[in-house]
Design brief:
Helices cover 36% and strands 20% of the residues. Strand 8 and strand 9 form a beta hairpin. The chain contains ten helices and 14 strands. Helix 7 packs antiparallel against helix 8. The relative contact order is 0.12. It binds zinc ion (ZN). Zinc ion binds next to helix 2.
């Protein structure tokens, strides 16, 4: 049965389509198809702009006698593994729902992030840490820019801009689709416009990447003061209030115990923050040296041997925790001549 592995009923009226993510450690995206009632089926999240992803969606839908012209689409957030192929699967009758307008392309978003990153990591100390002591800053900037773009582009995954008439949803809205009423729950931290969908009648939470089982979603901050970690943890309050019997995450397996997972994630980030605080107390005061001195689950033992994109995400995650500590008054920040340092 060709393609049978792609489709699986995970809850009443909810199919999971497994979308491969080639060359990506996440391995697969869960795309969920909600069916039932009189309305059009709703497909939640899509995969990269790669033929492997589009084929998996197409095969999965065809197993249910559906095509792209029969469905509407909901995008949990603007990361390329969730919306990369939207422009190619778009059909004239398709409605697209998301938390951000189509005019915001991923490239624009990355450039915004990147400017913040440079502001907070630039300076001679950072250049030195990157073993570029004699390079002028423009070279450092160019390198950082390329690394950042590479990190997110990977192969062909950058979202093309698309002119779909996106219906922008926000917290508290109700989306009637796939034979049910879904409450929109806006969450913060992993991505600025991340939306979850809550099916109160069936106790289902379509969670995107906000609360993944067994892995922690990337929480990178590239401009201190965004406070992505504080906002991420604060969004747990809204999720904890929901009566959820099954969480449908963007990656890995659906799971039952949402409160336990929220608690684990909270504890994980507290432990991480404590470790970062200790690194500062031991005298590390630049973000790169702090990132280098905390522990990472990386099979490559020496930081200097890491691919630059991994260093970037590690720095982003470290900044998220530094910002969190600073907002709690647990560490201090100094800005002098565009150089940012942290102290106990
Ligand atoms: Zn994802």
């Amino acid at each position: 049965m060709e393609g049978a592995k792609h489709v699986e009923l995970v809850a009443s009226g909810v199919y999971r389509l497994r979308v491969p993510l080639p060359n990506n450690p996440l391995r697969e995206l869960n795309s969920y198809l909600l069916v039932g009632g009189a309305g059009r089926p709703l497909l939640v999240d899509l995969g990269f702009d790669m033929s492997e992803c589009r084929n998996a969606l197409e095969q999965g839908l065809s197993q249910l006698d559906l095509g792209f012209e029969d469905i509407d689409v909901f995008i949990t957030h603007g990361h390329p593994d969730h919306c990369g192929c939207i422009a190619r699967i778009l059909r004239p009758e398709m409605r697209v729902f998301a938390g951000f307008p189509s005019s915001v392309t991923l490239q624009e978003r990355l450039c915004q992030e990147f400017r913040g990153f440079l502001r907070w990591t630039s300076g001679r100390s950072t250049a030195l840490q990157y073993r570029q002591p004699l390079e002028p800053m423009s070279e450092m900037e160019r390198m950082a820019y390329i690394a950042k773009l590479r990190a997110v582009r990977m192969t062909e995954i950058v979202t093309p801009s698309f002119e779909a008439p996106v219906t922008v949803l926000s917290d508290g809205d109700t989306l009637s689709a796939g034979g049910r009423d879904l409450r929109v729950v806006a969450v913060q931290g992993h991505s600025p416009d991340h939306l979850c969908l809550y099916d109160a009648d069936r106790g289902l939470l379509i969670a995107g990447d906000q609360v993944l089982p067994s892995i922690t979603p990337n929480l990178a901050e590239f401009s201190i003061g965004e406070n992505v970690l504080s906002r991420y943890l604060a969004s747990f309050d809204a999720l904890a209030d929901l009566d959820v019997s099954l969480v449908l995450p963007g990656h890995r397996e659906p799971y039952a115990n949402l409160p336990a997972r929220l608690k684990e994630l909270h504890e994980h980030h507290e432990r991480r923050a404590f470790e970062v605080q200790q690194a500062v107390e031991q005298g590390n005061n630049a973000v790169v040296s702090i990132a280098r001195s905390v522990t990472w689950k990386n099979p490559i033992p020496d930081w200097d041997d890491w691919p630059m994109k991994q260093q970037f995400f590690a720095i982003g995650e470290t900044l998220a925790h530094l910002s969190y500590l600073e907002s709690q008054g647990r560490i201090g920040v100094n800005v002098e001549n565009d150089r940012v340092t942290f102290h106990a």
